[in-house]
């Protein structure tokens, strides 16, 4: 994080990597790929600990609160339906494919994002119809909570707040929305001018950040200004935009806050990862009521 220098590469996948997630202690991370494999890695050494074969491409992935359970979604392809899987990394027979996963649910609509919403108990998926569905892996494969009016178009990303109270979603319908993580009630809506690909909640301030822009296939016809390729900061409560970070010349695909809240990282279609450090003015900034 000091200078952005690359210190290592994790080699092992043979296709596009759609999503990754890191455990709370940074010992492990998992990756979901289009090469029909989900992999568990040792963060420090870069070694592959386990590879799980998936029926189709894995689209999203999330590690549970303890770091012991992996949830991931797969896409619909030919005879295979879109599905949600949960594997226990402590069970070698599950990870090797000898035994069935801890949880499996066929999905009527493909889910491009998933996240654990309460400890090691509940998983939320956001699908291509803009719906958010929540499953409790202790209670079978029935939906325990849902919001079928979450968004008008597909959900591209979902992230939790540090205390697991809130869930933020990013959608193609040009909005990001804040939900109660237990009830899935919509609390706030953050409006943008272009599709939102990613959204994150600050761990230290009442702020959220949105990133996206004109779709990649249309970028060649779009100027940087009208493409809205900036990362945009909004007040969590008042839903008002108050700052932008420029620099990307293509849509932003992913955003993440540093756990200390002092910087934010963005990954863009332009092939760049940008580390944006907040200055002292931001850290001292108080919103005027």
UniProtKB/TrEMBL annotation:
Family membership noted in the UniProt record = Belongs to the WD repeat STRAP family.
Q: Which organism is it from?
A: Brugia malayi (Filarial nematode worm)
Q: Where are the WD repeats?
A: 10-51, 148-189, 245-280
Gene name linked to the record: Bm7127
Annotated GO molecular function terms are: RNA binding; translation initiation factor activity
Which domain of life, per UniProt?
Answer: Eukaryota
The Gene Ontology CC terms held by the record are: eukaryotic translation initiation factor 3 complex, eIF3m
Please give the name of this protein: Serine-threonine kinase receptor-associated protein
Q: Which GO terms describe its biological process?
A: cytoplasmic translational initiation
Q: Which residues form a coiled coil?
A: none
**PANTHER family, per database record:** EUKARYOTIC TRANSLATION INITIATION FACTOR 3 SUBUNIT I
Q: Which UniProt keywords apply?
A: Cytoplasm, Initiation factor, Protein biosynthesis, Repeat, WD repeat
InterPro entries xrefs: eIF3i, WD40/YVTN_repeat-like_dom_sf, WD40_repeat_dom_sf, WD40_rpt
UniProt KW Protein biosynthesis keyword: yes
Recorded hits in SMART domains, A to Z, give: WD40
């Amino acid at each position: 994080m000091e200078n952005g220098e690359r210190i290592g590469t994790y080699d092992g996948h043979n296709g596009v990597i759609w999503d990754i997630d890191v455990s709370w202690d940074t010992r492990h991370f998992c990756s979901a790929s289009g090469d029909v494999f989900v992999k568990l890695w040792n963060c420090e050494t870069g070694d592959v600990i386990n590879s799980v074969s998936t029926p189709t491409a894995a689209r999203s992935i999330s590690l549970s609160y303890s770091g012991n359970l992996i949830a991931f979604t797969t896409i619909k392809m030919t005879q295979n339906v879109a599905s949600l899987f949960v594997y226990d990394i402590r069970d070698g027979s599950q990870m090797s494919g000898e035994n069935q996963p801890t949880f499996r649910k066929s999905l009527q609509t493909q889910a491009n994002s998933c996240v654990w919403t309460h400890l090691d108990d509940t998983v939320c998926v956001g699908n291509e119809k803009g719906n958010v569905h929540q499953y409790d892996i202790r209670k079978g494969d029935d939906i325990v909570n849902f919001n079928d009016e979450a968004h008008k178009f597909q959900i591209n990303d979902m992230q939790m707040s540090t205390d697991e109270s809130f869930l933020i979603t990013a959608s193609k319908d040009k909005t990001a929305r804040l939900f109660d993580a237990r009830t899935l009630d919509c609390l706030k809506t953050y409006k943008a001018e272009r599709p939102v690909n990613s959204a994150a909640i600050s761990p230290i301030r009442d702020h959220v950040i949105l990133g996206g822009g004109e779709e990649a296939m249309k970028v060649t016809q779009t100027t940087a200004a009208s493409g809205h390729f900036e990362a945009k900061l909004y007040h969590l409560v008042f839903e008002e935009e108050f700052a932008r970070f420029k620099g990307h010349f293509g849509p932003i695909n992913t955003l993440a806050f540093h756990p200390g809240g002092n910087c934010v990282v963005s990954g863009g279609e332009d092939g760049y990862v940008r580390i944006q450090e907040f200055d002292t003015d931001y850290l001292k900034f108080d919103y005027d009521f």
